Amino acid sequence: MKFSKFGQKFIQPTGISQLMDDLGDALKSDQPVNMLGGGNPARIEAVNELFLQTYQALGNDGSFREDINSTATSSMANYSNPQGDAGFIDALVGFFNRHYDWNLTSENIALTNGSQNAFFYLFNLFGGAFTDEQNESVDKSILLPLTPEYIGYSDVHVEGQHFTAVLPHIDEVTHNGEEGFFKYRVDFDALENLPALKEGRIGAICCSRPTNPTGNVLTDEEMAHLAEIAKRYDVPLIIDNAYGMPFPNIIYSDVTLNWDDNTILCFSLSKIGLPGVRTGIIVAAPEVIAAVSAMNAVVNLSPTRFGASIATPLVENNAIKDLSDNDIKPFYQQQAKTAVTLLKKELGDYPLVIHKPEGAIFLWLWFKDLPISTSELYETLKEKGTLIVPSEYFFPGVDISDYKHAHECIRMSIAADKDTLTKGIAVIGEVVRGLYDGAK
Ligand SMILES: Cc1ncc(COP(=O)(O)O)c(C=O)c1O
Fold it and tell me: Cα(210) to centroid of ligand 1, in Å?
């Protein structure tokens, strides 16, 4: 079979396809696997209970059946328009305006089939070939102000890879009064001096906050500075809020969320516990929403309404926020604490430093001067039934061949139950101790 260039780009092995294959294999395997590798949210009792009640109510309220006596259009028996389920969009407008002073209207929101789908649209809208005012062709890229960044961005461009990425400042910090932690900060000197930025070859700036893979949360000062740079260069600032506030609110540092016409905020229902319903939410200027809707029409006809139907009542009555504040956030905060304690027990006397846990569902571990790369470590751990993700996948747009730090870290999920966390961390401890001891 001969595939087009477009097709070949997608079927090449990519970081994300390897990861998804390993995760899928692990779930099918009859051997026990310590799954610390995936991005699946945890099973949280209160969350499951609320969703179960909501599904049951949906089954009874006619959502699955066209009611000939009703003019309601929220039924799953109909396509929505390409912007997405109007009832859910109205509920979101009300919700965001209740909690923030953004003055949104329904023209500011579009839905997508998961936020991964949103990044496919946005990175291809703002990155790639442009025609400038002189009618010349310009190739623009997406500026990632702080890498490591989310693995899922890497391969979404339809042609090539269009990223310009900035490596972080690394600050050694304490966490709850304890040593052995670090925090990434944006290197604004490097960023402001990027030729691509000064020469008009950046189409948008994007960051995840909290960041997958590191659990870093960019400070309000960093965000204000990025917003100012975006305005100065007349490009949008895309904020990937998959783990952020107000839902799922897996964020422990004291920060705020802002939106204006130059900001594109991406939300998702996945990390509140509904990754299977594939629902992403974009909040942006009407011009961006119209473009996303037009792309939805071509790619999907209309986005899925299932997640929208489940989430509408939870958004209307704020249950989504209460669940996030009272159940989801404390759950992951406790998981992070447990995992840090276990890691310190296993590797406290070794050169392990942990990125300060500020949010998301991962810990990011840095094994300083590890005798092998963490891609090799990944293979050894996989043989021993423990899955993590090595750091090299998280540097889209960076040539990491001479950047040692990018080969010395791993991402581990903290969504697993305590038994899996304990066993997985014990395996990591045993293997890593052996590596350091062997190099003495
Ligand atoms: C930072 C980040 N952004 C976006 C996504 C995509 O999420 P979804 O497509 O499930 O909404 C993920 C998934 O893991 C993520 O971690």
Answer: 11
